[in-house]
Each structure stands twice: as C-alpha cells, then as structure tokens.
From TrEMBL:
Residues 101-125 are annotated as: Disordered. It comes from the Bacteria. PANTHER family: TRANSCRIPTIONAL REGULATOR (PTHR33204:SF29), TRANSCRIPTIONAL REGULATOR, MARR FAMILY (PTHR33204). This is MarR family transcriptional regulator. Residues 112-125 have a biased composition (Basic and acidic residues). PROSITE patterns: HTH_HXLR. The keyword Transcription regulation applies. Pfam families: HxlR (PF01638).
Length: 125
C-alpha cells in the first residue's frame, strides 16, 4: 500500500509518534541493547502487547534492530540501527522544545508536569 504524506515531517512524526516510542528510543540510546523484559521494566504502565507492537513498528521503519538468539528460553535483543541513531538531533531538539514550552505554559497558569525531562538517552545515541 502506498503511503502519501503532505510534508516530509509528517513521515518523521509517523515513525516516532506513539505514546511509548520516544521512551523506547531514549532507553535504547542509553543502554545500547535491551531485552524485551528489560524495556518493559523501564516503562511502567506499558502492556506486553503494546510494547511488542511499538517495537515491531520501529523495526519495520528501520529504526530498531531485533536480534533473536537460538536459546532456550528464547532471547531477543533490541538495539538502535544507524537510521535510529540518526534521529538523535531531532529527538534532542524536540525534548528541549517540550521542556521550554512546558515552562512557558506553567508560567501562564497551565499545569504541565514532565515526569522525565532528561534527554541523556538521546544524547548517548
């Protein structure tokens, strides 16, 4: 099926959008390689089904690599691809913008709380 986007940024947002995708990318940037269970422990509140779906989408988009080891029990590890690491500057900029925007909104009387304002995972990509 052919995908059509009005702007190139729409494709970028399509690849990285999703409630958990930025956090997944941040953790993989921080730790380089993670197993599914490790990622799930780092993302409280995510279900196994949603984690698997988000990882599959990131893999299909060439951002995350999945390596399966022929062991019992099976072991699967995820890491960023070169394409995934190329998102570094974009994710840092978006994180910085979000922090600045939250500060402005809070000063204007809105209540915005960012649980993890760290961008260290993106910086280590």
């Amino acid at each position: 099926m052919k995908k059509i986007y009005d702007f190139a940024i729409d494709l970028t947002l399509d690849v990285i959008s999703g409630k958990w995708k930025p956090a997944i990318l941040c953790h993989l940037g921080e730790h380089k390689t993670l197993r599914t269970g490790e990622l799930r422990r780092m993302l409280p509140g995510i279900s196994q089904r949603v984690l698997t779906k988000q990882l599959r989408e990131l893999e299909e988009d060439g951002v995350v690599s999945r390596q399966v080891f022929g062991e019992v029990p099976p072991r699967v590890e995820y890491s960023l691809t070169e394409e995934g690491r190329s998102l570094r500057e974009i994710l840092i900029s978006m994180s910085d913008w979000g922090n600045r925007h939250a500060q402005r909104e809070n000063q204007a009387g809105q209540e915005i709380e960012i649980h993890n304002g760290s961008k260290s995972g993106f910086e280590k990509m």
